[in-house]
Amino acid sequence: MKILSWNCRGLRRRPVKEFIRSYVKLNFVNIIFLQETHVHEEIALSFISCLGKSWYGSAISSEGASGGFLLAWNNSVIKAQLICSASDALKIGFKELIGNGHTSILFDSWLFDVPLFWMPSFVNISLFDANLNVDCLIDNGSWNVAMLYDLFGVSLVETIFGIMLPRKPCDDDWVWWPDNKGDYF
After folding, report:
1. Superkingdom of the source (predicted)?
2. pLDDT at 58
């Protein structure tokens, strides 16, 4: 099995697309993982179809001029089934684990897809010190409920309660986490 993993720095450029197609064909690549595609999901998926009828895959759109992922496989060699889109899987199964609290409350995207300083008025940013980390919201291994309600209000507290706290000391991290049935997505 051969895998191509590459930060392609943009999938719109013709030389990049031609290089990938020829490299895959000449080297009998079975799986392609491209990072930094800089294109919307539909454009990345249309590129997969240019590889041939036996190629399948999924993609995540870029955010502006950065990001974007593509995962593709030759289904005549690798029998795989896409059970949900990549972006849906990330939204459902990927969770923040708050450990030592080095995650900044305002400047890291621990609660949303964007840092909190971009959030609307229901977040009481005036109460924040810009240098505060998430560990100040934790008291004896549990969320500090009173502080959460003061800072975030009722609308966000339930979301915050969904963020895992570790059973023993560890670093902040992103982890795959199952739903209440034990399924990952």
Report:
1. Eukaryota
2. 87
